[in-house]
């Protein structure tokens, strides 16, 4: 098993731990080379983590955040990941490189965003859906098989098209931090831990990956053994 797992007994404790981990990595990289570059996923689950992260005293002017994924929706829309990210981090003002989902030519906009993606991120944060998707890489979508582009535009999922980093972009990281919480996610988490290829999340590279979750009682060895039978 090449993924580390840490469990917490509440969503609050999980969010605090996730924020502390990101802040620790940020301080180390800023001390080393003067900047910290990361990519953050959207959705409702990480909003509490962003609020905890905003409470950390960092050199925020040296933090650059890319988006892992974003819903195609107008600026300020409550469904936009950017809306929640900015609100959660307030009053902190890191540099946020927002996905250009308001442009009429989404494919062209995705290609231009891909040109901005760095060769390496210090950290990529991911979540996990009950259906096993991560980022906006959903079973059956053509974006799953995109190998030539770092950013793809998906079909409609839960009422919105999305712009998302592809597996190639997600692999450009020194560390992958999964923060897994939410209703009905336990089954998908067990599949992720086991490397079950039936879910998109299992296709993310597993080197130097850490999973933080409030799903307690998961035995990594037992999950792997169960999957092998």
Walk me through this protein's architecture.
It is globular and about 40 Å long. The chain is α/β, with parallel strands linked by helices. The chain contains 7 helices and 10 strands. Residues 222-229 have low confidence and may be disordered. It starts with a strand and ends with a helix.
Question: Would you kindly provide a brief summary of this structure?
Answer:
This protein has 229 residues and is α/β, with parallel strands linked by helices. The protein has helices at 11-33, 47-54, 81-89, 106-116, 167-170, 186-194, 220-228, and strands at 3-7, 36-40, 63-67, 69-71, 95-97, 123-126, 151-153, 162-165, 176-180, 209-213.
Helix content: 25-40%
Number of helices: 7
Largest sheet: 7 strands, parallel
Percentage of residues in strands? 15-25%
Gap from first CA to last CA: 16 Å
Q: Give the second-level CATH assignment, the architecture.
A: 3-Layer(aba) Sandwich
Q: Write down the domain tally.
A: 1
Structural class: alpha/beta
Q: Please mark out the parts with pLDDT under 50 across 5 or more consecutive residues, or reply none.
A: 222-229
Shape: globular
Number of strands: 10
> What is the CATH class name?
Alpha Beta
Evaluate the radius of gyration: 17 Å
């Amino acid at each position: 098993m090449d993924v580390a797992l840490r469990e917490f007994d509440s969503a609050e404790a999980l969010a605090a731990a996730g924020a502390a981990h990101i802040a620790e990595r940020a301080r180390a990289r800023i001390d080393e080379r003067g900047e910290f570059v990361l990519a953050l996923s959207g959705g409702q689950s990480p909003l509490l983590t962003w609020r905890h992260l905003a409470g950390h005293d960092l050199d925020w002017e040296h933090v650059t955040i890319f988006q892992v994924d974003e819903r195609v929706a107008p600026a300020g829309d409550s469904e936009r990941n950017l809306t929640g990210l900015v609100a959660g981090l307030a009053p902190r003002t890191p540099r946020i490189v927002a996905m250009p989902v308001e442009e009429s030519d989404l494919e062209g906009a995705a290609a231009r965003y891909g040109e901005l993606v760095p060769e390496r991120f210090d950290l990529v944060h991911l979540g996990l859906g009950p259906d096993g998707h991560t980022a906006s890489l959903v079973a059956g979508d053509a974006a799953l098989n995109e190998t030539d582009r770092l950013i793809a535009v998906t079909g409609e999922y839960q009422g919105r098209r999305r712009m998302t980093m592809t597996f190639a972009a997600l692999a450009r990281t020194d560390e992958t931090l999964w923060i897994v919480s939410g209703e009905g996610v336990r089954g998908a988490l067990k599949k992720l831990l086991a490397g079950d290829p039936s879910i998109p999340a299992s296709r993310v590279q597993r080197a130097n990956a850490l999973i933080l979750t409030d799903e307690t009682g998961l035995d990594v060895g037992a999950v792997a053994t169960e999957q092998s039978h």
